[in-house]
Amino acid sequence: MKKKIYAGVLTGILVLAQAVTVFANRPVHVALDGFLQELSHGASLIDGRSMIDAEDAEALFGDLVLRIDATGVDGRDMLPIRDVANIMSLDIIWDDENSLVRLSSANADYSLLPQMASGIQPTISMTYQAALNLINDRDARLIAMEENMIILEREQREIDDYLSDNSIRGRARRNYTVAEVQVLRAREALRNQQQVLEINEGLIRAGNELQLRNALADIGRTQLDIVLLERQLLLEERSTAIVELMHELGMETDAAQRDARASLERTRTNLENLQTAQGSNRLTLNTLLGLSATAIVEIQGISWTIAARTPLEGHVATQLANAPNLALLQLDLDFAEYIYFSYDVLLKSSEQEDDYRYRGRRQDASIVIEMRNDISAAERALENATNTLESRIRSLHNDIEALLEQQAIAQGDLAVAIENYQEAMLRYMTGMGTWLELERAKLAILNHEITLARLEINLGMLTLLYQRPYLG
Predict the structure, then answer these.
(1) Which of 148, 265, 323, 337 is deepest in the core (most CB within 10 A)?
(2) Is the confidence at residue 4, as pLDDT, over 60?
(3) Range 119-302 has CATH code 3.40.50.1970
(4) CA–CA distance, 78 with 68 (Å, rounded to integer)
(5) How far is residue 280's CA from residue 276's CA, in Å, rounded to a whole number?
(6) Which of 220, 200, 214, 191 is nearest to 139 (CA)?
(7) Structure pTM?
(8) Strands 297-300, 124-127: pairing kind
(9) Which secondary-structure segment (H or E) carries 263?
């Protein structure tokens, strides 16, 4: 009788021990920044501690985890996930209901894009400002302008010396000689040229910045598309492998197999085309910077978030008053008027038509007519440029408003994609969904993130042009 009792107790203890063992070693899932991680060997709850296979930990987090002491479990090296989190500076939360370890980095939850790298190691790194300085320093136009400015300043001094020596400023204008009037015009022409050079220098520098921004924007947009297609390609390769296997088992049709293969090939071709385009974009940047075609340049400190736009009407008024391209046309008009009105010293107009005289001698009226035409042409050019600039500012404003609306829609789409991924993750953890469905839901998040990133680049470029509409 006692033997039966002992046997029954021993059996109960063994059953209880088995039950405890099963519960204590239950499998767990690991999510990093909201995304469920695919583990080759898995993770388990062992004696109340969440443990991950050392190979999985190394694949996810790199060699740094090898510093953690491993525990042998059923022939596998297991690492405490909390120790992994500590060494990787990750926050850790245990979700008992879903047997889920949630790890969080500095990266926002459900944000894939910051994790995606270009995969290209740069050979040259420089700041955005250093790149801009490099372009300006080697710009032949700016170098020539500096040389011309030196010449103009020397000529200006010579004219000032002449005027000072001849005391021209102390006499009435009507007593100026022809030579003296010509000197005065030459001095005004020099001042005009100096102002033109100064304005053009600013325009060239602003244009160089626009060129650099355009080159970086092209690289940024193309890189975003490459990231998306690379992710899509991995997913399609896995999906096609499944279709191939099912086809061998007679569970998929020939048409399904052909479609999967064709889709995979299209994605590969599109990716190759994008990579070729990116090579061309990088070559454009290198040429702009004056660097070797083989150099891989990384520009640091580039931001597409530019200072906030000023209100439309105030910005229009400011630009029309100060835009450099209008200032250049205004200089043309001012100089044309100066030349015309300076002729009142030399030419006296009688009441008779086309009768111009200098000190009693008749002069050719075509000279004055030509000057009047120059003034009219300068007035028309200024008016046309003013209308064009105002129209461009309003068009840029409308384009920016449209992009802001698209941005709001894209942010809403991203929020929906995140909710869909969360639902897919729960289905997968409960055995009701596949890993492929989970990856597709993750791809949808990346797609919306890339849409937002492209919009950010486009908004940055449009805002830059809105601030400097004369560059367009």
Answers:
(1) 323
(2) no
(3) no
(4) 10
(5) 7
(6) 200
(7) 0.83
(8) parallel
(9) helix 254-289
Number of helices (H), then strands (E), in the chain:
11, 13
Lookup: tokens for 375: 């003034």
Residue found under tokens 């040429």? 287
pLDDT at 372: 86
The residue among 324, 304, 266 whose CA lies nearest residue 400 is 304
Beta carbons of 381 and 329 less than 8 angstroms apart: yes
Q: In 111-177, which ranges are continuous DSSP H helix?
A: 128-137, 140-165
pLDDT tens profile 431-467: 899 999 999 999 999 999 999 999 999 999 999 999 9
DSSP code at position 471: G
**Element housing 77 (H / E):** strand 76-80
- What are the extents of the domains in the chain? 26-109, 119-302
Q: Is the dihedral of CA 301, 302, 308, 310 positive or negative?
A: positive
Helix axes 178-248, 324-341, angle to 10 degrees: 160
Nearest partner of 191 among 376, 353, 331, judged by Cα? 331
